[in-house]
Amino acid sequence: MRIELLNSVETFIEGLNEKEIAKVIRTIELLEEFGNKLGMPHSKHIANGLLELRIRGKREIRIFYCFSKNKAVLLHAFIKKTQKTPIKELNKAITAKDDL
Fold it and tell me: Which residues fall within 8 angstroms of residue 38, CB to CB, at 6 or more apart?
């Protein structure tokens, strides 16, 4: 499956440390290989066609994505600091999805 990253996601990834970048790349490669068959612990359905890639480590990294025209589009990324996903981060992903 083809993967498309929005510029904001690329910028976010570039700001991570080497170990985190390696984990993100590996998880994106899993998405590329397994597509919509990728499940927990790497991917979780959120709502209305919005999913999240889950990268575990010292810092919890989340990348919201959706499927569009036979590709996965990575919409928004952030460091998760609380148990519950902040609504602000979710809204950014929804806005990016609506803009596709």
Answer: 30, 31
56-88 pLDDT, tens digit per residue, is 999 999 999 999 989 999 999 999 999 988 899
Q: Number of structural domains, the chain?
A: 1
Residue among 52, 45, 46 at smallest CA distance from 27: 52
Structural domain harbouring 40 = 2-98
CA distance 62 to 65: 10
Which strand (E) or helix (H) includes residue 95? helix 87-98
User: Distances in Å between the alpha carbon of 39 and those of 16, 22, 53, 71?
Assistant: 24, 20, 9, 17
